[in-house]
Specification:
A 5-stranded parallel beta sheet has the order 2-3-4-1-5, covered by helices on one side. Strands 8-9-10 form a 3-stranded mixed beta sheet, covered by helices on one side. The chain has helices spanning 8-11, 24-35, 53-65, 79-86, 103-110, 135-146, 166-169, 182-195, 202-212, 216-229, 236-243, 248-259, 263-275, 280-299, 308-314, 319-335, 342-355, 363-372, 375-380, 412-422, 426-432, 459-470, 490-510, 513-522, 534-539; strands spanning 42-46, 92-96, 123-128, 152-158, 173-176, 199-200, 233-234, 435-441, 444-450, 477-483. The chain is of the alpha/beta class.
Length: 540
């Protein structure tokens, strides 16, 4: 019979503070306290799952009860250390508060606290998930914490310290354990794979480290699964298949299509991914992560740290547009659960990015040329709020518009005309189309922005809007506040109009006698979601 398999999380559990991964601030404090024998009676370890709370508590228990004496470096060989490692120490009382919430359980355990340890220096109570205790149990524990015997140490661990009574918190030394970094998890995974003499690829371990999300135990559990899936090896291809990930090349291709405004090709790629059975929610997350990498690359001078692919993408998009894409992607993830399907949700998110993606040419120059070059057109539109007096400089190729010091904006209709005339682009366009006109007093333009789009109101976006406005209106100050817009913004009106047109198209199509005859002949019905107007098909 083969030897019993020990999972990696247990096999490679640290036995002393030197073997611990991360948590340097906690380790330093505990090491100094142990070496100087300045020991508190109560310790509280907090943090998310799998970051080392219980492990640190057990190492601490060995450190204070090791037969070589109290120190930060237990021998790991004496009878006491071995018993603690095996979970057989009579003086280390471990309690899972999740399954022992009642006060009777706590009282029964604490009744023996007054008695000295059976064979060790200290009797240690290790209470895991302590926040699960009942109110009565906390009261019972509090009584012992207030006046603990000298031979007692309490080690408490929890993932939710906010649920602990303040009276408990105030009587313990609290250590908040951080999530482990990607590199910390990755290096430990490499160490284990080398120790096990198993074949692996760095990319594969990196993906496992990402999915660990700061938890070493979760990463090791996934590593166990990966080794079984790959029959003793951990390959990037196997990890991609096992986790339902999309190949990086497809993500990079999708990002490039968005940047180049190739809507049709992007939709075809998404449909191909869906046909292959790829996880489209993960696709959007990976795309969001790629945008983050590209944005980071734009800020890093040392290109040796960045892949050529990322550098190439970073050179093809502005930082402002990249921020817009990232925000749309984040919102798309939130909206995915409300979409008719994952494919629909991803397609609409991508189309939204492309719809609000400005042309590659300089927006400011484009606006000035389109608005100023035709002197006659300006005269014909003299009733428009932005087309009033102007200066004709004959020595210049472009006609420059005189700045209007007192813009004539008195209503939402006037404001919408301004939006159309000025030709905003990108995030600025998306923002202004979702605003309502409030007032214009003393060159201060006050707008209300739809609550849903407040995350777009960055300093850069606001500066872009003000700059465009001031190219026509001197000394104009912009003030934007959050609020409900109730379907009155230009964007909401456009959406309503589009939906009305779509319904009209649908009704006209369904009323066609030829279509009805086909439905009767084949005993079927047309999928109304597939009906699109010519305008919609052109946009695709």
């Amino acid at each position: 019979m083969s030897e019993h398999y020990e999972v990696l999380a247990r096999k490679y559990r640290p036995h002393n503070f030197k073997e611990l991964v991360g948590q340097s601030h906690t380790i330093r404090t505990l090491v100094n306290a142990l070496d100087n024998n300045h020991l508190h009676h109560g310790f509280l370890f907090t943090g998310t799952r799998g970051v080392g709370k219980t492990t640190i508590a057990r190492i601490f228990a060995k450190s204070v009860n090791c037969e070589t004496g109290v120190s930060s470096n237990p021998c790991g060989k004496c009878e006491t250390c071995l018993e603690i490692d095996l979970g057989q120490s009579v003086d280390l009382i471990e309690l899972d508060a999740a399954s022992h919430t009642g006060v009777d359980n706590m009282r029964e355990i604490l009744e023996n606290a007054q008695y000295t340890p059976t064979k060790n220096l200290y009797k240690i109570y290790l209470i895991d998930e302590v926040h699960m205790l009942s109110k009565s149990s906390f009261n019972a524990l509090l009584k012992t914490l207030e006046e603990p015997p000298k031979h007692i140490k309490f080690l408490l661990a929890t993932t939710d310290p906010k649920k602990l009574p303040i009276t408990i918190l105030s009587r313990c030394l609290q250590f908040n354990l951080n999530k482990l970094t990607h590199n910390e998890i990755l290096e430990h995974l490499k160490f284990i794979m080398n120790s096990e003499k198993l074949e692996f690829e760095d990319k594969a371990l990196s993906k496992i480290a990402d999915f660990g999300n700061g938890s070493m135990r979760d990463a090791l559990s996934l590593l166990d699964q990966s080794i079984s899936y790959g029959n003793g090896s951990v390959k990037d291809k196997d990890i991609t298949e096992m986790l339902g990930l999309v190949n990086h090349s497809d993500i990079a291709k999708l990002a490039l299509l968005v940047i180049e405004k190739k809507a049709k090709e992007a939709l075809l790629l998404i449909r191909d991914l869906a046909h292959r059975g790829e996880n489209l929610s993960t696709t959007l997350k990976d795309l969001t992560s790629l945008f983050h990498k590209i944005s980071t690359a734009q800020m890093i001078v040392d290109e040796k740290q960045i892949s050529p692919e990322i550098i190439d993408l970073a050179n093809k998009i502005s930082a402002q547009d990249l921020q817009l894409f990232y925000q749309i992607a984040i919102n798309g993830q939130k909206d995915m659960q409300h979409s008719p399907s994952e494919q629909t949700g991803l397609e609409m998110t991508i189309l939204r990015m492309i719809a609000f993606h400005p042309d590659q040419e300089n927006t400011e120059k484009k606006n000035l040329k389109s608005s100023h070059s035709d002197k006659t057109a300006l005269k014909k539109n003299k009733d428009n709020s932005i087309n009033s007096d102007y200066l004709d400089k004959t020595n210049n190729k472009d006609v420059e518009l005189d700045v209007i010091k007192a813009p004539n904006i008195k209503s939402q209709d006037d404001w919408e005309k301004v939006i159309v005339e000025l030709g905003f682009e990108g995030a600025a366009k998306m923002l202004v189309k979702n605003t309502l006109f409030n007032s214009l007093v003393d060159s201060t333009l006050k707008l209300t922005l739809n609550n849903e789009f407040m995350n777009l109101l960055t300093k850069n976006t606001k500066n872009t809007i003000e700059k465009t406005l001031r190219s026509f209106y001197s000394d104009l100050t912009l003030f934007i506040e959050s609020g409900e817009t109730n379907g009155s913004t230009l964007s909401q009106k456009e959406s309503t109009k589009l939906e009305t047109e779509r319904k009209k198209t649908e009704e006209q199509f369904l009323s066609d006698d030829g279509l009805k005859e086909l439905e009767e002949t084949f005993n079927t019905k047309v999928d109304t979601k597939s009906i699109k107007s010519l305008k919609e098909t052109k946009n695709v």
